[in-house]
């Protein structure tokens, strides 16, 4: 069974930084893509950043230049470095991976909360 566990959320003031991490565990053959999504209260979940196995990344326009995604398939880990945080960045951040396993598909973590007070 595949599990994704996020860490690194917390409370930070406007302009501050946080680093989120997510590690996959369990029985699987490989990881094809890794991503971070977020969901603010009352809003739909949105893609923040995504990186493929080959290292190609893309970002939501709202975080370009401030957030950096990095992935390491050898250690089954994806990180999200978030700098110059704004109140609109607050929400629950979810890790997502496309994993090749007995069931190949998209797996999700349970989320970690980022709070940026106004």
Question: Could you explain how this protein is built, in words?
Answer:
Helices cover 0% and strands 55% of the residues. The chain is mostly beta strands. Strands 2, 4, 5, 6, 9, 10 and 11 form a 7-stranded mixed β-sheet that branches. The chain has a 4-stranded antiparallel β-sheet with strand order 1-3-8-7, with no helix packed on it. A hairpin with a 4-residue loop joins strand 5 (46-52) and strand 6 (57-59). The termini are far apart. 32% of the residues are buried.
List keywords for this structure.
single chain, globular, mainly beta
Percent of sequence in beta strands:
over 45%
Number of helices: 0
What structural class do helix, strand and pairing data support?
mainly beta
**Largest sheet properties:** 7 strands, mixed
Order of helices and strands: EEEEEEEEEEE
Stretches where pLDDT is under 50 for at least 5 consecutive residues are none
Our measurement of the CA-to-CA distance between the termini, rounded to an integer number of angstroms, reads: 40 Å
Principal-axes geometry comes out as globular
In helices, the fraction of residues equals under 10%
**Average pLDDT score:** 97
DSSP, total strands: 11
What radius of gyration results from the CA coordinates? 14 Å
Please give a quick description of this structure.
By secondary structure, the chain is mainly beta. It is built from no helices and eleven strands.
């Amino acid at each position: 069974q595949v599990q994704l566990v996020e860490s690194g959320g917390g409370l930070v003031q406007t302009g501050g930084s946080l680093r989120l991490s997510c590690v996959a565990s369990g029985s699987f053959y490989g990881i094809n893509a890794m991503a971070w999504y977020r969901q603010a209260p009352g809003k739909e979940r949105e893609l923040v950043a995504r990186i493929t196995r080959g290292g190609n990344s893309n970002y939501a326009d709202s975080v370009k230049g401030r957030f950096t995604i990095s992935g390491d398939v050898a250690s089954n880990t994806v990180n999200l470095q978030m700098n110059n945080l704004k109140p609109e960045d607050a929400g629950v951040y979810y890790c997502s991976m496309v994993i090749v396993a007995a069931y190949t598909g998209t797996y999700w973590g349970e989320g970690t909360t980022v709070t940026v007070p106004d």
